[in-house]
TrEMBL record:
It is an enzyme of class 6 (ligase). ATP binds at residues 101, 141, 178-181, 186, 264-265. This is N5-carboxyaminoimidazole ribonucleotide synthase. Residues 105-294 form the ATP-grasp domain. GO terms for biological process: 'de novo' IMP biosynthetic process. The keyword Cell inner membrane does not apply. Pathway: Purine metabolism; IMP biosynthesis via de novo pathway; 5-amino-1-(5-phospho-D-ribosyl)imidazole-4-carboxylate from 5-amino-1-(5-phospho-D-ribosyl)imidazole (N5-CAIR route): step 1/2. It comes from Rhodococcus gordoniae.
Length: 404
């Protein structure tokens, strides 16, 4: 049976390992250390850095495919591995567009994909000039490495803008500026593509961000016109095909006040916006990613409930005195239908330490706002309990009563 190497030992690799077990496969992980989430559970671990070519070679030896749980691997190393016969998927020629936002914007512009106006920033003068062409303020971004709200600035103070630009450029950080899109909500179109060229898409989902970090995903996105949802899925599949993506890819989108969709960013790997499918779709993103990189026929992406809500378990400002094991005990006693996925991480403020999925009752409808709101409330209540050991509705886990 195949061996797939995944570069990176985080929670995405950990959950891909779970899918590999079910398929009888082996997931080899290149991890920075034995305490990383995937290294804790995979029996086939190579310890090393993702930017060390020799470590990449060791991890790739004998593998049927090499793939990623993050996009930070130098493409020049991946091109060397390609020349040495390694099946790097997605290939570096595609991955570059998830690594470099300037390259992504230029390529998507050539494809005619809807996106914000942008400008490359190579000096403080460029940053000032962009105020006239993009609006004031605009969104300043690190072209590489930014994630979960990091590497993004919206600055009304021009002196502060000058300072940040000068500081980042001096540190060797490439920058771009984008017009500030007036959006009503954020969406994600998740797709998969195989080397054979087969494509599959999940329903478009709504993502709810807090402090630049994904907190909640509602699948499918409520109040999204069918033609708009179809257009988003087709756009994501077209981008995957044009860029030569293999594996799963998330196209993060803004929905504007006028109802148009604008591409924000790309992620060429399993993605937080696809976690709902582990329990809420016939084929989840982790199994689908393995199918895709091994060129298996892709799985059915149909949802199995009218709505599934994923809520991230984000670390509390201070870890509760109650152990996670006891928190799980109380959660399952009160909410036995909640699906829990924990990542084996230590708890600290705002760290993603797990997620929960809650499926709505089959009798409900995505078109019923009260039904959707009730499922979302339950998911967020469960996630908050796991992170804070406090029930948001005042429930007392010992007496079974609401109140202080």
């Amino acid at each position: 049976m195949p061996v797939v190497t995944m570069i990176g030992g985080g929670q995405l690799a950990r959950m891909t390992h779970q899918a590999a077990i079910a398929l009888g496969q082996t997931l080899r992980v290149l991890a920075a250390g034995p305490d990383e989430p995937a290294a804790q559970v995979s029996p086939n671990v190579v310890i090393g850095s993702h930017d060390d070519l020799d470590a990449l070679r060791r991890a790739a030896t004998g593998a049927h495919a090499l793939t990623f749980d993050h996009e930070g691997v130098p493409t020049e190393h991946l091109e060397v591995l390609q020349r040495e016969g390694v099946a790097v998927l997605p290939p570096p020629q595609a991955l570059i567009y998830a690594q470099d936002k300037i390259a992504m914007r230029k390529r998507l512009g050539a494809l005619g994909a809807p996106m914000p106006k942008f400008a490359e920033i190579t000096s403080v003068e460029d940053a000032r000039a962009a105020l006239d062409t993009l609006g004031d303020p605009y969104v300043l971004k690190a072209a590489r490495g930014g994630y979960d709200g990091r590497g993004v600035w919206i600055l009304d103070d021009h002196a502060e803008l000058d300072r940040v630009v000068a500081e980042q450029l001096a540190a060797g950080v490439p920058l771009l500026a984008e017009e500030k899109v007036e959006w009503t909500r954020e969406l994600s179109a998740m797709v998969a593509r195989s080397p054979f060229g087969q494509g599959a898409s999940w329903p478009v989902v709504e993502t709810v961000q807090r402090d630049g970090q994904c907190a909640v995903v509602i699948a499918p996105a409520p109040d999204l016109a069918e033609d708009v949802a179809t257009a988003a899925e087709q756009l994501a599949l077209r981008i995957a095909g044009e860029l030569g993506v293999v594996g799963v890819m998330a196209v993060e989108l803004f929905e504007t006040r006028s109802g148009e969709l604008v591409v924000n960013e790309l992620a060429m790997r399993p993605h937080n916006s696809g976690h709902w499918g582990m329990d809420g779709a016939r084929t989840g993103q982790f199994e689908q990613h393995l199918r895709a990189v091994l060129d298996y026929p892709l799985g059915d992406t149909s949802p199995i409930a009218p709505v599934t809500v994923m809520a991230n378990v984000l670390g509390a400002p201070e870890a509760p005195a109650m152990s996670m094991d006891e928190r799980l005990h109380h959660l399952f006693a009160r909410m036995p239908d909640v699906h829990v996925h924990l990542y084996g991480k230590g708890e600290r403020k705002d760290r993603k330490i797990g997620h929960v999925n809650v499926l709505g009752a089959p009798s409900g409808s995505i078109d019923d706002p009260e039904y959707v709101a009730a499922v979302r409330e339950r998911a967020e209540r469960a996630a908050h309990w796991l992170s804070h050991a406090v029930w948001t509705d005042g429930w007392n886990e010992h007496t079974g009563e609401n109140g202080e």
